[in-house]
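Q: Here's a chain of 193 amino acids. Please give me its 3D structure as tokens.
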Amino acid sequence: MPVKLGPLRIPWLKSKDDDDPYWQFFLSELPGDRRNSTIDMIRRAPEGAINPVKAELHSPEITAGHIKEFANYLLAISCGIVDLSKQPEEIAQGYRYGILCVVPSEVDTKTYEGVGGQAGVQRSLYVTFIIAAYIRELGIRATAKPEPAAERLAALAGLGTLNEAGRLVVPKYGTRVHVSDLIRTDIPLAADG
């Protein structure tokens, strides 16, 4: 909620044409040392082992509901599941299902590659890292990797629609979202869409 202090309002809204060099640097400039990028740190983190004791699961519909509720708990806007057996092998990579999450992002992460511009990517990596780790703890293989066709798969899973530029559009947020890395897994799930 903005606070009024005479003619000033805090926080004041930033316009797209803002000429503040610090703000533009925060949004647009890549880190001078890639080790300062949280995204690279999370992507380089080793995945945990698959638990040798496989958990007993509910039906695929209930398990899918649990995964989606877990993603919402981790602050994803929405979560969808695609059947990778109906996708080309370069997308499926030997896995049966794919899980995609959508998180809010104030700016387009493809345009603004600075530390601030990548906040949506960082949020989505947090969500996918934890969901994939949870599935491995259930005794089922799961891995989260970037997927160029993620927005198309998210639309296929019913998370939104694609606009003419190929960007995912979701209710309430429009295109101000980021689609997570694709979690490939063999956990029995009910696919959306």
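Q: Can you summarize the key feature?
A: Residues 119-137 form the longest helix (19 residues).
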